[in-house]
Amino acid sequence: MSEQPAEPVIVERQRRFSLAWIVPVLAILVAALLSYQAWQQRGIAVFITFEHAGGLKVGDAVVYRGFPVGDIRDIQLSPDLGEVIIEARLLPQAEGLARAGTQFWVARPEVSLAGVSGLDTLLGPTYLNVRPARQPGKPQFRFEGRPDAPRDQATGLHVVLRLARRGTVSTGSPILYRDVPVGQVGGVRLAEDARWVEVDAHIREEFAHLVRSRTRFFKASGIGIDFGWFQGLSVRAESLEALVSGAIGFATPDKPGDPVSDGVMFDVADQPDSDWLKWDPPLSSAQP
Questions:
Q1: Is the residue at 57 inside a domain?
Q2: C-alpha dist (Å) from residue 218 to 124, 273, 274
Q3: Nearest CA among 211, 184, 214 for reference residue 200
Q4: Which of 83, 114, 144 is the endpoint of a domain?
Q5: DSSP 194-262
Q6: Each residue of 169-217: pLDDT tens digit?
Q7: DSSP run (H or E) holding 84
Q8: Which has the closest alpha carbon to 170: 246, 111, 282?
Q9: Where would a tag sit more exposed on the chain, N or C end, judged by fewer CB atoms within 10 A?
């Protein structure tokens, strides 16, 4: 009887995990993590053009709602030396600010009798303020900086006022009705023919119905002198706030006329006629 050949013995060797693979794998993971963090911290570069730097310097913050959302990385003159170009880096979580309609301006203190704003720029570093549009547009990375803080003029009535001289009227001057602020001046410019000063006035939406076709505007920052043979000399002075701020007032007659639309032009008198101040029409926002 022949002997059966012995079956080969298979010896399974237990594979050992080599620690030599851990080091390169960890190195790759750490490098990827550092690259991701660096990308997160890099942010988005935007370029804002100003007429002058306004005291800004490299390292100053970009602020939105009082919170730093970036910083200034570089400041250079434009090739024609006519403007200053500021490179700012926005944090990744603030990338929504890099869109059409966003406004940039240098934070400056504004002092008036109504109060003080931007006082922190007197006591601390200057910074760059930013505000997005109510309806942001497409991504954008180059902007024209504003010379001053934007005014809230999205809704309401916009009219053009015509003055012989500017006087103390300036951007932000209040528009008054019965000495109550109902709007403000959005801009002042010289007319195309240089014969007048044109003022862009914004009346807030809730007060737009007060302006009618027969409304009269006047400078509310003057001192009037009235003389009568029987009543003697009387001096009428507007409020000190109106005197300093260059306020413009208006009055609407008892027969007010029709409502007006945006862009209508009104002349501004140097002082109100005595009859204007006696007008007392009942005006409701529900009236046509």
A1: yes
A2: 40, 9, 12
A3: 184
A4: 144
A5: SSSEEEEEEE-GGGGGG-BTT-EEEESS-EEEEEETTTEEEEEE--HHHHHHT-EEEE--SS---B--T
A6: 887 788 999 988 999 888 888 888 889 999 989 998 889 999 999 999 9
A7: strand 84-90
A8: 246
A9: N
Model pLDDT, residue 91? 92
Q: Which two tokens stand for residue 111?
A: 């002092």
Query: Which residues lie below 8 Å from residue 18, measured CB to CB, with a gap of 6+?
Result: none
Last residue of a domain, one of 99, 119, 144: 144
pLDDT tens digit string along 82-121?
A: 999 999 999 998 989 999 989 999 886 554 444 444 444 4
Are residues 111 and 167 both part of a single domain? no
* Contact partners, residue 114, CB within 8 Å, separation at least 6: 241, 245
181-186-187-193 Cα dihedral, nearest 10 degrees: -90
Q: How far is CA 25 from CA 15, 16, 19, 30, 37, in A?
A: 19, 17, 10, 9, 18
Q: What is the C-alpha to C-alpha distance for residues 140 and 96, in angstroms, rounded to an integer?
A: 10
- CB count within 10 Å of CB 181 equals 16
Q: CA 138, 141, 145 angle in degrees (round to 5)?
A: 105
Which residues span the domain enclosing 184? Answer: 157-278
Q: Name the pTM for this structure.
A: 0.52
Is residue 125, in this structure, part of any structural domain at all? yes
